[in-house]
Structure formats: C-alpha cells, structure tokens
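Journal club prep, shared notes

We agreed each person brings one worked example of a sequence with its structure written out as tokens. Mine is Cytochrome P450. I'm keeping it raw so we can talk through how to read the token line rather than staring at a rendered picture. Sequence first:
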Amino acid sequence: MTVPGDEPPAYPIGRECPYRPSHRNTALRERGPVAPVRLYDGRVVWLVTGYAESRALLADRRVSIDPHHANFPVLSADMAGLEDTGYTDVLIGVDPPVHTRQRAMLISSFAKRRIDELRPALERIVDDRLDEMLARPDRTADLVSAFALPVPAMAICMLMGVPYEDREAFEKPARALFDPDPERAEAAVAAMTAYFGDLVDQKTARPGEGLLDDLIADPAFPVELGRDDLVQYAMLMLIAGQDTTANVISLGMMALLRHPAQFAALRDNPALVPGAVEEIMRYVSLIECISRAALADIEIGGQRIAAGDGILIGAGAANFSTELLDRPEEFDVRRGNRRHLGFGHGIHQCIGQNLARLELELAFGGIVRRMPGLRLAVPESEVPTSVTGPLERVECLPVTW
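Then the structure, token by token:
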C-alpha cells in the first residue's frame, strides 16, 4: 500500500490511562475518518476512526477477518504468527460460509433466553466471591484475583461443562498464548489442545451437561463437526469468555473508583446498572481496534481502499466520537447507549455478548450494593497493568472497604 503525502503516524498509540483509550485518538480522527497509519513492522494500513465508517466496514462483506491474507494487520510482535496456531480457525478468523456454519452451531447456546436461565447460578457465583472478600478481617483484597478473574471463569466453565477445578490446566497456557517467544506460545497452544482433547474424549464416552456435551450430542458430530473442531471451540470460548470479561470488570471498577459520583449513582440507584454496563464497555473500549483485509476496492470516508489493503477498525476511537453521543469524553453511567462497538458489529459481533452483559451487570451491581465504601488501597499510579496481545490488563487491583 502506497500513500502519498506526509509520513503516516505510528499505530497503535498505547494508553496513558489504563481504563480508557488515549486522548491522542482525537488527533487521529481529525486527519479524517479513514487515514493511513504505520505499524510496528513498517507496513502501512488504513485506520478507520469514524463511527459511521467503522460500523459500515464491520458489516461489509467486502472485508475479510481471515488473518492469512498477506496484508492482514498485526499490531505487535507477540500477535504475529497467531494464525498458525489454530486459535483463529474458529469464528474469529474465518469468513462465510465457514463462519456461518460455525456460528449456527453455537448461537442457540448464547441466546438471551438461555443466558437468562443462568441468572440464579451466576448470582450465586458473584455473591459467593463477595462473601469471601467481605469475610476478610483486614478488609482488603486484590479485586482481580478475588473477584474479576474467578467470576467469568466459573461462569464460562459452568456454561461449557468444563470442571473449574481444572483451571490450572488452561489458565496459564491461555495467558501465554500471546507470548512474544514463539516456542512458549506454541507450547501454550499444545498444552491447551491436549487438555481439551482429553476433555472432549471423556465427554464423548460419558456425556454430561454443558455446551460441549450439547455439541457432542448434535447429529453433526462427528461427521460435519469433528473432535478437532470441538477442541478449537472450547479453546476460543474459554479464553474469550474469561479473559475479556475479567479485564472489563477490573478496568471498569478502576473507572468507577476514579469517578466516585458515578459509583455513588449506581449505589443509590441499582436500576442504572444495566445501562452502566454499556457505558463501561464504551468507555473502557477493551479491544481498541479490529483487524480486517479488503477483498475488493472500497470507497469510504473520502478514501479508496484497494483490494488487498489492510484495515484497522479503530473501535476505541469511534466509541469516543460525537457521531455516537454528545460529550463522549465524559464517563456517565446514566447514558446506556448500546450502539457502541465494544462487542463489535456485523456478522462477527461477539457471540457471547448476552453472557458478558449479564455477568457484568451482576458483578458491578453486586459490588456497589454490598461494598458501598469500596476504594483503592493504593494510589492509582501504583496499580500494575500490562498489555498482552490485544488486551489491556490489570494485573492486581488492591482495594479496601
């Protein structure tokens, strides 16, 4: 891709504040809704920062999610080669018709009605974790290890029929999936593949309850849906269903504690919590950009994207656009705008969004209700964070109450 004019700015730009995208996105948007940027490896791709343009391209069949395209954008060295591990062979790295078939196999398990049936069990998970925290005599805890990690992990394990007590077999490998050392990343994939392969074999011999068991019972198994497919489904759903939600809980709580009036609003009016989840998803913008490749020439945002060009949908920038809402820089839990791009858009919109919304609603609602005096136990600047793959992480969030 050759772009005339000034040298494109480097991208991604990182965050000054862990719980929201950089203010420097404003300068990127001012260059136009579609403009070139340069990646870490020197390649130039299109960055889409306009809200309307982002939604349009996410729904456009002329763009591909397949990372095997030559110019498919990779944001960092630790994400290079991920397409060769098999992790992207299910949903997040395949186009129709393969994606259509895969999504159809799973969609009923994540339908809102079925997820709503899990509410009592998820409420118990949240309350049990809060009970354990509140029982601590020193009235301090690490919100990440005590709550943000176990709640979504237990929820997705329950949904899938994966024993939560086996978590050591998949939690550490899941974190190592984006290790910049290719040998460690490959070892992590191998460990997870072996674990889930054994689990699928056990469930095939002795069916139980859970999404994996439902898929094994499907008439398509093992003719159209094979053992290897189930292993890939399990890896994707467990990593995506646990990691993303855990980080939204941690970062969302940082944002609420940094804006005590917003925390107080939720505490005083629980009816605001479902809408607050939408504002937290927008404001945190956990996955700031979404990679695509053009399959055909596309005219959009005053630019011509040529077939084969790499595209980055800047969801984080678009979520802070005045096209979406007024005063986007403000964090306001009373808004509840569901048109944000926190769950993506189009045919690849997050299949687990109903589960994530319910988990987040119960998590934030439970905390403000049962821990109304919650506050950080250390200065915000001392909260350790990191970036692993596409995700901003809070490693530890010391709190007191």
